[in-house]
Design a protein that fits this description.
- The protein has 221 residues and is α/β, with parallel strands linked by helices.
- The protein contains 8 helices and 7 strands, in the order H-H-H-E-H-E-H-E-H-E-H-E-H-E-E.
- A 7-stranded mixed β-sheet has the order 3-2-1-4-5-7-6, sandwiched between helices.
- Helix 5 links the parallel strand 2 (88-93) and strand 3.
């Protein structure tokens, strides 16, 4: 391998410092994040440092129509909804329990009318959107759902996002497991295969960030 400068190791004290000088988190989002952290699957939540990045994506693209795979308690959804009052988000999930929390906070923020929550398997929702003629109509897609279906989510999102639109795929480092060929569980293999596919996909411009648990950015050509 060619020698190169590696990212600064993110120790706990450095992470705390990083958040203290970077995270401009509204109180409502902080409360949602803290409530979510108490859940049994609280680690599924979008990392706090990703919120401002989602905010920037919405503002810079700009993204008026957004597709989200994996709502959970709506932390990332709320960051994107608050970024621009003209934004409309279609978000997909299967959990009534977790999305009930999301809906409480969306209502408090006054953004519920701009969020279309689709309950059911994500691939079913995406297929319906394609069949209903929504190809090439979304500005931004954020994929952060069950990892075994990542390839299907990516392909459908690529069809639905417009030329020049952006797809962000979360957890593509997956705690480092894709780099270890001895790890062969379904989720790890799915992420490893998608990472390899994206690297040679001529349909996109690619940027793989070693950020949080790995965030891959694919711009549709």
């Amino acid at each position: 391998m060619t020698s190169h400068v590696r990212p600064t190791p993110m120790t706990d004290p450095l992470y705390d410092y990083f958040l203290s000088v970077s995270l401009r988190e509204p109180d409502l989002l902080r409360r949602l994040r803290e409530e979510t952290a108490l859940l049994s699957h609280g680690d599924w939540q979008t990392a706090p440092e990703q919120g401002p990045l989602l905010d920037l994506f919405v503002k810079m693209l700009p993204a008026k129509r957004i597709l989200e795979l994996g709502t959970f308690t709506g932390y990332g959804t709320l960051w994107m909804a608050l970024a621009d009052p003209a934004t409309h988000i279609t978000t997909c999930d299967v959990s009534e329990e977790y999305t009930a929390i999301a809906k409480r906070y969306w209502a408090e923020a006054g953004v519920s009318d701009r969020i279309d929550l689709q309950m059911g398997p994500g691939l079913v929702t995406l297929t319906k959107l394609i069949m209903d003629g929504h190809e090439n109509s979304y500005d931004f897609a954020f994929i952060d759902a069950d990892k075994g279906h990542y390839d299907g989510y990516y392909e459908a999102s690529l069809a639905l996002v417009r030329r020049g639109g952006l797809i962000a795929i979360d957890n593509t480092l997956w705690d480092g497991k894709p780099a270890d060929e001895t790890v062969t569980d379904v989720d790890t293999v799915a992420i490893r295969n998608l990472n390899a596919k994206l690297f040679v996909d001529p349909r996109i411009d690619l940027c793989f960030l070693p950020f949080a648990d790995g965030l891959t950015l694919a711009r549709k050509k």
